[in-house]
Design a protein that fits this description.
Blueprint (H helix, E strand, L loop, with lengths): L8 H6 L2 H10 L10 E2 L1 H8 L8 H13 L8 E4 L14 E4 L2 H7 L4 E3 L12 E7 L9 H10 E12 L1 H5 L5 E3 L5 E4 L7 H8 L2 E9 L5 H6 L3 H7 L3 E9 L4
Parallel strand pairs: 1-8, 2-3, 2-5, 3-4, 5-6
Antiparallel strand pairs: 6-10, 7-8, 9-10
Helix pairs in contact: 6-8
This protein binds S-adenosylmethionine.
Amino acid sequence: MRRTEGPSALERLLARKSVGRILRSFLRPPEVTATNQLDVREAYRLWAPRYSNETTTHYLDDELARTMLEGLPRNHLLDAGCGAGARIRDIPGAVGIDLSPEMLAAGGLHSVVAGDINAMPFASGQFDMVWCRLVLGHLRDPFPAYREFCRVCMPGGHVFVTDFHPEAVVAGHRRAFNDQAGAVHEIEHYVHTDHTELAAQAGLELVATRDGAVGPSLRDFYVHGIGRKAYIRDFGLNLVSAYLFRLPRN
Ligand SMILES: C[S@@+](CC[C@H](N)C(=O)[O-])C[C@H]1O[C@@H](n2cnc3c(N)ncnc32)[C@H](O)[C@@H]1O
């Protein structure tokens, strides 16, 4: 599925920021024709039976996690907003929490609980790694969640956050899915450009931030999914932003 060879001549041309911007200014993705915007709880209840992690955003998120978290301890890992738990399935001892019992049931893991990341049922200082991936864009105000991440993280531990990139929203991408009957639903989503500030107010220090953009590693997803034209249109577009924070020791 994934491509390993280097970029083609066309991809090198598209990699120039100005070329991508011009292309996307007149080649926007088709409008999402959702009749309404669903709140998170209802959206993931409907999406759970068909939810898949095989998407461009999940793939970029995984790439970012692999590179940014390399070598960091995760002996006590919390996945906040774990969905079906695909990202902790193979990590012994990892714990997950998610608002949607249907998503948790679809994954069938035992080490997960239903709950809200704004007020988690975990003791303070319990985890050396807290990650929260592609979740905070669903919260109008992510600050209470950041405070909770700080509370449950042990001093010297890390918090890893990813979000749907603001540039993707500007380019016309939406968080939407098809239900079992084929109807399109858009999910409640908020653009946050202030993760670093919110995390700092909560007590976290920034270690690194990176963006995940459409490029050769996503070529096959596009070509076998929404098509080559869309790949050319989106080449270079940031779809995911990632932040690695640390809780200071004192
Ligand atoms: C796009 S999915 C991501 C799932 C998982 N993190 C992953 O990357 O595969 C977003 C998830 O966030 C969960 N979620 C949204 N708001 C939440 C909240 N306040 N507390 C707990 N989970 C929440 C949803 O139920 C959904 O399962």
